[in-house]
TrEMBL record:
Record's keyword terms, sorted: Signal
Keyword Nucleotide-binding belongs to the record: no
NCBIfam families: SgcJ/EcaC family oxidoreductase
SUPFAM superfamilies for the chain: NTF2-like
Span of the signal peptide: 1-27
Pfam families linked to this entry: CaMKII_AD
Record's keyword annotation contains Signal: yes
Origin organism lineage: Bacteria, Bacillati, Actinomycetota, Actinomycetes, Kitasatosporales
Domain Calcium/calmodulin-dependent protein kinase II association-domain: 46-167
Protein's name in the database: SgcJ/EcaC family oxidoreductase
């Protein structure tokens, strides 16, 4: 229990420090993208849960740039089907260009949301991706996930995203 509390405190501190970096620049600063909603309202568990739905909808567009727009410029992505850590927009776009070829659709199976502050939250749990193969058949990938969200410049963005296949057994 103490370790969980320490982790939450560390994440909250990191989120508060990161949130103070200021507005994002470059392509991410584009506010015209419909998948991004600007807000100044305090987060609720429902609002944080909706951020996954926004991300999942972006996946369905098949547009890697649109998916990358949901990540902070200093985001870290530990993707499900790649061993390479992605630490910049180009790396995130590259990953999603390949991943989106399988037309992934995610579905949350179990989730835990922790609102850390007015500008930071964590959504973690289990999700299942349905992937479409070249022959039209589908397959599934069950994975564990963690999204760390921060509010920057009125936009909720993904600061850290870790996804890994669920290991066999318990």
């Amino acid at each position: 229990m103490r370790r969980t509390h320490s982790l939450r405190a560390a994440l909250a501190l990191a989120a508060v420090l990161c949130a103070g970096i200021g507005p994002i620049a470059g392509a991410e600063a584009e506010a015209a993208r419909p998948a991004v909603v600007r807000t100044t309202q305090p987060p609720s568990r429902e609002r944080i849960a909706a951020l996954f739905d926004r991300w999942n909808a972006a996946l369905r567009t098949g547009d890697a740039e649109r998916v990358a727009d949901l990540y902070a410029r200093d985001a870290v992505l530990l993707p499900t089907v790649s061993s390479r850590i992605r630490t910049n927009r180009a790396g995130i776009v590259d990953y999603f260009e390949h991943f989106l070829l399988s037309k992934p659709v995610g579905r949350i199976q179990e989730r835990y949301i922790n609102v850390l502050s007015d500008t930071a939250a964590v959504d973690t749990g289990l999700y299942r991706f349905t992937l479409t193969n070249e022959d039209g058949s589908t397959s599934h990938v069950d994975a564990r996930y963690t999204f760390v969200y921060v509010l920057r410049g009125g936009r909720w963005l993904i600061l850290n995203h870790h996804s890994s296949a669920v290991p066999a057994g318990d």
